[in-house]
Amino acid sequence: MFAPPSPRLPRALPAEHRAKLLETAREVSFPQGTRLFEEGGHADRFWIVRTGTVELDMHVPGRRAAVIERLGHNELVGWSWLYSPHVWHLGAEAATPVRAYEFDAAGVRALCEDEPALGRDLAQWVGRVVAHRLHCARVRLLDLYGPCGAGSGV
């Protein structure tokens, strides 16, 4: 099955908007195994991975959480902060030691209100990320629970 490329930061935003967004970031590190957030929790921040790998997972009743996607360099971790009610739709865990840029969601939303062009571009980027994640979740769940081979391009 076709998997669209993950929308990464360098080509996702114009240089001036990328620079403005990065001005609001702070650098953080997470040891392997750290839970960044839980499905259903309050989404008040997001990250762009600098180094390492973050796994996105989905709660599956009666089973172990299903890893939906692995994110790495320049990829967005968390999109629920942008859309009301600001609740995480997936969980996330550092699969390796991770260094990332962390952003305060309320501050970025305020920046978007002050600079509508940046807000539009950021919303379009995050929308592409959401579409990509939905595709990955569908394919992964078909691989795990669908008829044999359902998610592999049939």
UniProtKB/TrEMBL annotation:
Q: Could you tell me what this protein is called?
A: Cyclic nucleotide-binding domain-containing protein
Q: Please report the stretch or stretches of sequence annotated as the Cyclic nucleotide-binding domain.
A: 9-78
Give the Pfam families listed for this entry.
Answer: cNMP_binding (PF00027)
Instruction: Return the InterPro entries for the record.
Output: cNMP-bd_dom (IPR000595), cNMP-bd_dom_sf (IPR018490), RmlC-like_jellyroll (IPR014710)
Q: Which organism is it from?
A: Streptomyces prasinopilosus
